[in-house]
């Protein structure tokens, strides 16, 4: 006869098999930990963005907006003869813009004139002006007095460095070279140290917008500084939250790097092989952007974002703030940090750079106006 059929065991009414219960418990635990991590990262990001910060507003009386700059002057560099270059019209995924269809440009202003005006520089034929999207800039004067202008460019949101020769008689830029490299995936700013040599910051490790966002959200500290020359390209400093502005000291011995979301300026010693070693870190209470150096004093001038959330989540009724810091004796044990200018967005929104020349102060922004002040 056939063996009796075994009946499957029934769980008690209202019960759950132990294995399934354990699986759900583990799943809930993992979900809970993931949510806790996301919550912690969100709060950490708000802190890094200084999302609740407001500022006092010291007044600089002798200031006026620069005519012709309506959609940002993200970086400024001034030659020893008083010619100032402006990088204007930056567009970036997630960044507000007042001129979405207008290509970027390089403007120039002669600060030795009684009433300086900003003029757009003509760029030589063959360079793709339609996709010109300039970011950080830097000048280099060669031994024969040739002036080179280095421009971080994001054509179609890619990453290149463009090298131009400045032709002063024609008020024009002759395009010499486009540089692309796998070690330059997310270039932000640049400081030139030779006719084709520079240090550059990568504000992210990745170039893909979603991976960049993830990298920022998870606070991975994968941002770095790269040295580029025609013969050698190498990472010379790493571990930054978001390396941004970079500048060389007047004596060429040190490199200064702004780490925006860490609210820090790093002082790095430059060696003969162009490697860098960290000397000190100056902690501040604001999001530091681009750096400029007063060549006469060595003071570091910083364009800052007191509240990063207002910068990245644009609301015309609650616009981004502006702040300019002056740092004296940065190499000393106790540098002096002074707020020279601040504004609630009524005049200037999202200050990204401040440069001085002979008692004159220029303040640029990521996507708004630019200011000319007499100190």
Task: Write a brief structural summary.
The chain has three helices and 25 strands.
Please trace the helix and strand order, writing H or E for each element: HEEEEEEEEEEEEHEEEEEEEEHEEEEE
CATH architecture: 6 Propeller
Per DSSP, the total helix count is 3
**Largest sheet: number of strands, sense, barrel closure:** 5 strands, mixed
Which homologous superfamily in CATH is the superfamily? TolB, C-terminal domain
Percentage of residues in strands = 35-45%
CATH class: Mainly Beta
**Unreliably modeled segments:** 1-6, 8-13
Number of domains: 1
Number of strands: 25
| Helix percentage range | 10-25%
What structural category arises from helix and sheet content?
A: mainly beta
Q: Mean pLDDT score, rounded?
A: 91
List the helices and strands and how they pair.
Blueprint: H1 18-48, E1 63-65, E2 73-78, E3 83-88, E4 105-110, E5 119-120, E6 122-123, E7 134-141, E8 147-153, E9 160-167, E10 172-179, E11 187-194, E12 197-202, H2 209-217, E13 223-228, E14 233-240, E15 243-248, E16 254-259, E17 264-270, E18 276-283, E19 287-293, E20 300-305, H3 308-312, E21 322-328, E22 336-343, E23 351-357, E24 360-365, E25 371-374
Parallel strand pairs: 6-10
Antiparallel strand pairs: 1-25, 2-3, 3-4, 4-5, 7-8, 8-9, 9-10, 11-12, 12-13, 13-14, 15-16, 16-17, 17-18, 19-20, 20-21, 21-22, 23-24, 24-25
Tag the structure with descriptive keywords:
single chain; 375 residues; mainly beta; Neuraminidase; 5-stranded mixed β-sheet; 3 helices; disordered N terminus; disulfide bond; acyl-L-homoserine-lactone lactonohydrolase activity; transmembrane helix; EC 3.1.1.2; Arylesterase
